[in-house]
Amino acid sequence: MKSEYADQQYIDDSVLLDGLYEFHPAFFSELDPDEWEALRRYYLTGQQKVPASVIRYRQKLRVQEPTIENQARQAFRKVCRLAGME
Q1: In whole angstroms, how far apart are CA 27 and each of 3, 5, 24, 82?
Q2: In a domain, 72, yes or no
Q3: Structural domains counted in the chain
Q4: Which structural domain, as residue segments, surrounds residue 50?
Q5: How many CB atoms lie within 10 A of CB 55?
Q6: What tens digit of pLDDT does each residue of 15-62 get?
Q7: Measured between alpha carbons, how far is 74 from 52 in angstroms, rounded to an integer?
Q8: 9: nearest Cα among 48, 52, 62, 55
Q9: Burial degree of 39 (CB within 10 A; 0-12, 13-18, 19+)
Q10: Distance between CA 86 and CA 84 in Å, rounded?
Q11: Does the residue 1 lie in any domain?
Q12: With 50 as the cut, is the pLDDT of residue 65 above it?
């Protein structure tokens, strides 16, 4: 399943989220539980253990849960707004 949301952009966004979560966790405090869960599952935000291939993980997750990418990207944009990075 090919996505318009490119693999490299996904990785870049994941790295950004991890940095924000590590150094500025307050930006995540305004997320509702569903938004946080989408970030945690899709971008693996805050996860200590990640799959060997995050790209394959993402591909499989998108097949299993077709709405997860959109939910996670909306939550990502919200965190960016909270961080002043629009």
Answers
A1: 28, 24, 6, 6
A2: yes
A3: 1
A4: 7-82
A5: 12
A6: 999 999 999 999 999 999 999 999 999 999 999 899 999 999 999 999
A7: 26
A8: 55
A9: buried
A10: 6
A11: no
A12: yes
